C-alpha cells in the first residue's frame, strides 16, 4: 500500500495552480481540488479555514508577490532583470491574472511594490516619484501580461509579434521615463 502525501497548505496551493493552469479559473471548485488532492473537500478547510476566499487570496500572493531580490548592481539593470522574471511568473500562471487585477488583496502586492519603490529610491528618485514609478512599472507589467495572454488565447494578433521583443521595448521606455 502506498502512503499518501500529507495535505499541506503548500500542496493545496500548488494543486490549485495546476488546476487553474490546465483548466482555467472557472473550473476551480473545492470539490474538484479535493479530488485532485485525493482527499475530501472538507479536509482542505483544516488548512484554509476561510475556504475558497482564502484559497484565492493565497493564489494571488503565491503568484503576484515577487519582490526585487537584494543584490548589487545598477538599479535599472536589477529592475530589468526582475521585470523579466515577474513577467515569466505571471505568464506561467496566467489563469490567476483575473484575480490579481480584480480582487482586493491586502498585502499581496505590498512587498513587491515596496521593493520596486526602494530600488527606484536607490537609483536617485525622490520618495514621491519612486512611489509613482513603482505603480507605473507594476501597471505596465500587469497590463502587458494581460494583453499578451488575451491575444495569445484568442489568436487575434494584428501583426506578427515577438512578445519578448515587444515587452522589452516597452520596458525600456518605462525605465527611461523613470530615470
CATH architecture of the largest domain: Orthogonal Bundle
Overall number of domains? 2
Q: In percent, how helical is the residue content?
A: 55-70%
Radius of gyration: 19 Å
Distance between the termini: 62 Å
| String of helices and strands | HHHHHHHHH
Which word captures the global form? globular
Instruction: State the name of the first-level CATH class of the largest domain.
Output: Mainly Alpha
Category from helices, strands and their pairing: mainly alpha
List the uncertain runs: none
> Any idea what the CATH superfamily of the largest domain is called?
Tetracycline Repressor, domain 2
Q: Count of DSSP helices? A: 9
CATH names the topology of the largest domain as Tetracycline Repressor, domain 2
Mean residue pLDDT: 90
Instruction: Let me know the largest β-sheet.
Output: none
What percent of residues are in strands?
Answer: under 5%
The oligomeric state is single chain
Let me know the number of strands.
0
Q: Mind explaining what this structure looks like?
A:
With 179 residues, this protein is an all-alpha fold. It has two domains: 41 residues, Arc Repressor Mutant, subunit A (Orthogonal Bundle); 116 residues, Tetracycline Repressor, domain 2. Helix content is 70%, strand content 0%. The chain is built from nine helices and no strands. The protein is globular. The model has no long low-confidence stretch (mean pLDDT 90).
Amino acid at each position: 500500500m502506498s502512503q499518501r502525501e500529507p495535505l499541506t497548505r503548500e500542496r493545496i496551493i500548488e494543486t490549485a495552480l495546476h488546476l487553474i493552469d490546465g483548466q482555467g479559473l472557472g473550473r476551480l471548485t473545492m470539490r474538484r481540488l479535493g479530488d485532485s488532492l485525493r482527499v475530501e473537500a472538507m479536509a482542505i478547510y483544516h488548512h484554509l479555514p476561510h475556504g475558497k476566499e482564502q484559497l484565492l487570496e493565497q493564489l494571488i500572493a503565491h503568484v503576484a508577490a515577487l519582490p526585487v531580490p537584494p543584490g548589487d548592481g545598477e538599479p535599472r539593470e536589477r529592475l530589468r532583470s526582475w521585470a523579466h522574471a515577474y513577467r515569466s511568473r505571471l505568464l506561467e500562471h496566467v489563469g490567476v491574472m483575473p484575480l490579481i487585477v480584480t480582487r482586493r488583496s491586502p498585502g499581496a502586492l505590498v512587498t513587491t511594490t515596496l521593493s520596486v519603490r526602494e530600488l527606484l529610491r536607490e537609483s536617485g528618485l525622490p520618495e514621491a516619484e519612486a512611489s509613482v514609478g513603482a505603480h507605473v512599472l507594476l501597471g505596465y507589467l500587469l497590463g502587458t501580461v494581460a494583453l499578451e495572454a488575451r491575444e495569445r488565447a484568442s489568436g487575434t494578433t494584428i501583426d506578427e509579434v515577438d512578445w519578448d521583443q515587444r515587452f522589452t521595448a516597452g520596458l525600456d521606455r518605462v525605465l527611461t521615463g523613470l530615470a
